[in-house]
Design goal:
This protein is an alpha+beta fold and 85 residues long. It has a domain of 44 residues. Helices cover 27% and strands 29% of the residues. It is built from one helix and four strands. Strands 1-2-3-4 form a four-stranded antiparallel β-sheet, with no helix packed on it. β2 and β3 form a beta hairpin. The longest helix is centred in the first third of the chain and has 23 residues. It is elongated, with a radius of gyration of 20 Å.
């Protein structure tokens, strides 16, 4: 019993590191910020038809919020989106 607890902790830590490594491959962490004035395309979520467009745009980035969301300029209104989208 005394040997199994530290071994279990090591196995949990090993599994956690493996999961973090796998997730970082799927969605790498980027420290780069999109510059104001850059043209961007925004991913459209929840598309059902494969013939519909997957992105909207191009939009111009006009600002950045405190929580790392970007504000883009649209013809009708300003849109805020997260950088990972």
């Amino acid at each position: 019993m005394e040997k199994s607890y530290p071994e279990a902790l090591r196995n949990i830590e090993k599994a956690k590191n493996k999961q973090v490594k796998a997730q970082n491959k799927i969605r790498p962490i980027t420290e780069e910020k999109i510059q104001i004035g850059t043209k961007v395309w925004i991913s459209i979520k929840g598309i059902q038809n494969k013939l519909h467009p997957k992105y909207r745009g191009p939009f111009t980035v006009i600002g950045l919020t405190k929580i790392d969301n970007y504000i883009v300029e649209d013809a009708l209104k300003n849109i805020s989106f997260h950088g990972s989208d």
